[in-house]
Design goal:
By secondary structure, the protein is α+β, with helices and mostly antiparallel strands. The protein has helices at residues 9-12, 31-36, 38-47, 52-68, 121-134, 150-157, 182-187, 191-206, 217-227, 238-241, 244-249, 297-311, 346-365, and strands at 2-5, 23-29, 71-80, 83-95, 98-105, 114-115, 140-146, 163-177, 210-212, 254-260, 266-275, 278-286, 316-320, 332-343.
């Protein structure tokens, strides 16, 4: 673990009415170092209002997502007056398995990357960025903010020496409002999408396909392992995915659903979790064999899934990474900004451009959420 006591004059000079004690920052690199901190981080999350089970889920999910998104997980801890005051979740991006100096804050995807006092967020964020960029191997740090907070965040970080900030728009996730009944949900769609959901669902039922809404860990892992072989454009391997069902189970309300043909072969699987009246869909894998090209597996799965969620009292379906297919036209899309903070110099900019070019190519050839028409 790398530590850095005290606070730099540039961070101390930020205009704020918040009283700051004696602070220090530390960086934990890798899964083992982060899990060692769980006994300290758990009580912090509970002080911030998280249930003990949710606290455990957040840490486990963060580590697993590092494998899923091909990142080396990083946790920055901020201690104030010898007491853990905040943690920041992050991940170092990899290209072809090799770590590069691009650090992304927010490896928890749906959840915020910062867990600490809200009134000290800007100060602690500046400390985090300054600490990460002081490391020899780090060239840039990027993170996502709400559009209405971007100006304030960029202004706060601009006082740090030897760095430059820039921003760009992005789409993080899409939310679909489900309504009180499946028929009322369908009534709010366009005629073509409504017809497709009904038609392909009836066709699947006529072929004796089976939708399973509560897969066991064994069933979910078996379906994932079977379907990952048929992902012609997916960037994820079985090694990336194998931990996800178990991690979702630690949330207390996992989303593990499968679609099977008449012989019991897995055709589609969705992985995510439920939180109160919202379901978060992390990933969906579909069978890509030619015989299923006209079956619209994604549409069939989502028709069964949405009907099941509505019957169980769920009101919103949030798709991590954004929704594709015809349903995207009926989603509320949360538009945010990516803020990039990088060291001055052509080398840092080159690293960041290379990493994001790879991500752009992978996005064009195979997304995490596999959507159909």
């Amino acid at each position: 673990m790398l530590t850095s006591p005290g606070m730099s004059s540039s961070v101390r000079a930020l205009k704020t009415p918040v009283r700051m004690g004696r602070t220090s920052t530390a960086v934990a690199l890798g899964e083992a170092a982060i899990l060692e901190l769980q006994p300290r981080v758990g009580p912090l999350l509970q002080r911030l209002g998280f249930e003990p089970q949710v606290s455990e889920f957040l840490i486990q999910y963060f580590v697993a997502l590092g494998h899923f998104e091909h990142r080396c997980p990083i946790m920055v801890t901020i201690t104030e007056d010898d007491e853990l005051a905040a943690v920041v979740f992050a991940g170092q991006r990899r290209i072809l398995g090799r770590r590069i100096g691009v650090v992304h804050l927010g490896a928890c995807s749906e959840h915020d990357f910062y867990f600490g006092p809200p009134e000290k967020r800007d100060l602690f964020l500046a400390l985090t960025v300054q600490k990460l960029l002081s490391l020899r191997w780090a060239h840039s740090v990027d993170f996502t903010t709400d559009a209405d907070q971007t100006e304030q965040v960029v202004h706060s970080l601009s006082s740090l020496p030897g760095i430059r900030c820039r921003r760009k728009p992005r789409t993080d996730r899409s939310t679909l409002w489900l309504g009180n009944s499946y028929e009322s949900f369908l009534a709010g769609l366009g005629a073509g999408t409504r017809h497709n959901l009904r038609y392909y669902r009836r066709k699947a039922m006529g072929s004796n396909w089976r939708f399973a809404s509560n897969l066991s860990l064994t069933e979910a892992n078996a379906a994932l392992k079977h379907l990952v072989r048929y992902q012609r454009t997916s960037v994820h391997s079985w090694g990336d995915l194998r931990q996800l069902p178990a991690i979702m189970t630690t949330s207390g309300r996992p989303l593990l659903c499968g679609l099977y043909d008449a012989s019991g072969q897995p055709l589609s699987v969705v992985i995510g979790w439920n939180d109160d009246r919202t379901t978060y869909l992390l990933t969906q894998l579909n069978h890509s064999a030619a015989e299923y090209n006209r079956a619209s597996l994604s549409m069939v799965m989502r028709a069964f899934l949405i009907s099941e969620l509505i019957d169980s009292g769920i009101q919103k379906l949030t798709v991590i990474g954004g929704c594709g297919g015809n349903l995207r036209f009926y989603c509320w899309t949360e538009r945010r900004h990516t803020v990039v903070v990088e060291k001055n110099g052509w080398l840092s900019k080159g690293y960041w451009l290379a990493a994001n070019m790879r991500l752009k190519v992978l996005t064009q050839t195979g997304r995490v959420i596999v959507d159909g028409n």
